[in-house]
Amino acid sequence: MKINKKDDIVKYSLELFNKYGTKKVTVEEICSKSNISKGTFYKYFSNKTSLLIYIVTLFINDSNGRFKNLLDEKIKFETLVKAVLQLKEDFMQKYSSDFLMSLYSSGEPKIKELLNKLHEDSINNSMVIYQIGLAQKKISNDITPEFFLYQLELIDKSRNDPRVINMYPDVKKRNMVIFELFFYGLIKRF
To answer: What is the pLDDT of residues 85-135, one digit of tens each?
Structure first.
């Protein structure tokens, strides 16, 4: 069985990033954990930043692919909401708060650009969910697209509000509570 060194680098660097964040991990530590030479690392990545860019690109592709797969299943709105929340929870379980926070605090322009794309894709995916909810008559027609987008902005703000952070210090728990409140608060009651 052929071992894919690039996949190993990603796998073991994620273990280190999840444990220590991105700033504290060096290329040397990644090489040691991956059991490769620095030359092998540099064969695939020009530096740690290029590795992080690759990983964030994987996030985006994985996230969009999973969402598309859900849409292809043509499932009911409530099932779609539960599945999307499960995807969010899986993401939060896979990547540590320290790792995610270190990415978001990165000064690297390409990483910021990719994280902005991830955010935009998330908003677009949320609008697709909104449209499905309207079509299946699970979201009230009184909830306009503009109001829906406004609520998404409030979610973003509340995730970083010091009062909410104080209530839910664990970023994973905080995000799940906010997302659940948002999506389950949208479902029309009969």
So the answer is: 888 878 878 888 788 888 888 889 999 999 889 888 988 988 998 999 999
Q: For the range 86-94, what are the long-range contacts, defined as Cβ-Cβ under 8 Å and sequence gap of 24 or more? A: 87/63, 88/175, 88/176, 88/179, 89/172, 89/176, 91/59, 91/63, 92/171, 92/172, 92/175, 92/176, 93/172
Tell me how far apart the alpha carbons of residues 118 and 64 are, in angstroms, rounded to a whole number.
9
Which token pair is 149? 């987008």
Tokens of 126: 């949320």
Note the helical H segments in the chain.
5-20, 27-34, 38-44, 48-72, 77-94, 97-104, 109-135, 145-159, 162-167, 171-186
Amino acid at 82: K
> What CA–CA distance (Å, rounded) separates 78 from 3?
41
- The model's pTM is 0.80
8 Å CB contact between 149 and 50: no
| Predicted confidence (pLDDT) per residue in 133-168, tens digit | 999 998 888 889 999 889 888 888 888 789 998 998
Identify whether the C-beta of residue 174 lies closer than 8 Å to the C-beta of residue 159.
yes
C-alpha radius of gyration, the chain, whole number: 19
Q: How far apart are CA 89 and CA 87, in angstroms?
A: 5
Q: Vertex 116, ends 115 and 119: CA angle to 5°?
A: 90
